[in-house]
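tool=predict chain=A
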Amino acid sequence: MENLKINIIPFEHSVKELEIGFYKQDKKGFYALWKGEYPQSFWDDFNAEMQDCNKLYTNFKDTLNCDYKATVDFTKNTRLAAHYYTRLIYDYFETVADVVKISFVKDIQIWFKDEAKTTTAYTSYKCFTVKVQFKKVTASPELLISYDGNTTVYNKSIAEFDNFPPELINLVKFNKQVVKYEFAEDAVKQHIEELYPILSNTIRDYLKIDRPPFTRGNKYLPYFKNINDLYDIYLNSKEFRAIIPLAKEGFYKVPQHHIHRTSFNSNKLRFFNGTDIVPHNGMKNIGPYKASPHKNVEFFFIYHKPDRNFAVKTLYTYFTEGYKSPEGHLYFKSLKTYIKQPFLINEGTSISFDNTETALSAVKQGLLNLEKKPNTKYVAIYVTPVHKTETDLQKKMLYYQVKEELLKHDISSQVIYKENIGHKDFSYYLPNIAIALLAKIDGIPWRLDRDTKEELIVGVGAFTSLNHNIKYVASAFCFNNNGEFKGFDCFKANQTDLLAGTIGKQILKYVVDNGESAKRLIIHFYKKISNKELQPILEMLNKLNLNIPVVVVTINKTTSEDNVAFDLNSKNLMPLSGTYLKIGWDQYLLFNNIRYKADDIVNDNPFPVKLSFSSTVDNYFDDRTVIEELIDQVYQFSRMYWKSVKQQNLPVTIKYPEMAAEIFPFFEGDKLPDFGKNNLWFL
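tool=predict ok
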């Protein structure tokens, strides 16, 4: 049995009713309110002038010479109540925190100096967010307390910079404020000697300040400690409780009847003739669900000439004979044993290049010279001398250029960094490489262990492309409900008609393959879907004369670190895999990890995934089993990741599109080659 605490503290109203003055003109220290936040009485007593008044301002204190006045019941007008309590909390932390600011979404962000991580070059701050919300988890008003990690501020002001590129400066610290430098008021810019830049990675690189090291440790433990420290020192005090009467128990203990689990055996995967919950064990002990359907598969290498004698030959040996330890222990079986695919190379097909500057032209010429056999699937093993962290754009582009050139020739590729081949832990890389290769030759490493239903699942993800001045690129991946991949495409985010067209093609393909139409369309979307994005899909279904429910599951592409729960019965504090909690009328928190049993202690501790649901059919979710089934589906699709045998916490319906969308903007063509739409080349 789990003992869950969530990072929410219930509280009682300190004031039930309050007379508030509203002003048409903004004043220092005032809140801006939009029409939807006005008191209900403004609309009950119809005022024509109010229809044109798009903004009002208040500080919840002054009423003298106000333009409007109203007595507000905070138990009914929760929007105004949230503003009021936020202002009280802001004023409190202004006296105790090093930085206090209101975020874009009107939450309070507070910073405290972290002496342990502060250096002579910069000052480090622990950052927290305090959010006022109403009846999301409990029957009371609530404070959501989240720990946002550390932020660093350079110890030299802008006035001390010499020849520093101003375009690199984004946010600056000024006294207890954080402001966007580009839009800072003149009263702030007048104090240039007091403006300290917040260190982004770009500024760190320019100033040659090391980036913070990436840590793989358990993030639950420091998160829990930090929010409890904040509570013990600043929230559980007479001063704070005088303005916000917090529940005496502190963080909310989730009742057992509010803790839900995915269905029994929902983590099972089907391999050749059996099931397992651990991908590597299933591949090793049972074998892949389906070997490649192609009768002939040929591989060839692309490599830098100096890497042939060690990297290429060593990799060839691993693929054909397996990987053995110096003591003779077989850590990885050959490809023909592990994925049931012999590693066949025809002499003279591999392509080598003298240096990275000539690599692309060598690849193009080699592909023109490649005499492809009929009915043969080709796969390139690209041993690259360029690491993925390379900062030289020309060298970095080689990865994308080679990928695209191969796709033009209907060839998928597996890219392996040369230095990794000699790494002492390369045996851990090999199973991941093997299953990705199997997927690229249209095999199926494993599938979900569930009965096939008449439904189509489409995943839409995105990746922000900063290099190409494109806000983001979206891509759509289609699967049937047991996880079998059915194709995808990539487009810019505003090309909603193309997105709808891709879904339409997959529905028609479904009809051809199955002799009947899908009974429902499920869309896994990386953010809240807009009407602009949904409408073309509905119009497309209408043209196909398909009156089927469309269900949209919003899956944040980043894991939730604002809403987190902790299992106090676990040493690592991580809830059991498959646990989910309701955190709003349509929102759920899903814990998706590999802690399957109460006594499991695991090293991988991912934060939960936040889900929300909507449907084109009214009251579609009144039947609780519908939500349960959809959450199960998200949970299971996270087990379909074929780039690694390691469990992922995001479903492939979101993960795969993001991976493809990250690469696609670097391609020279603005359309994905047809071959690339039906192959998992990006793994």
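The chain has a mean pLDDT of 89. The chain is about 30% helix and 25% strand.
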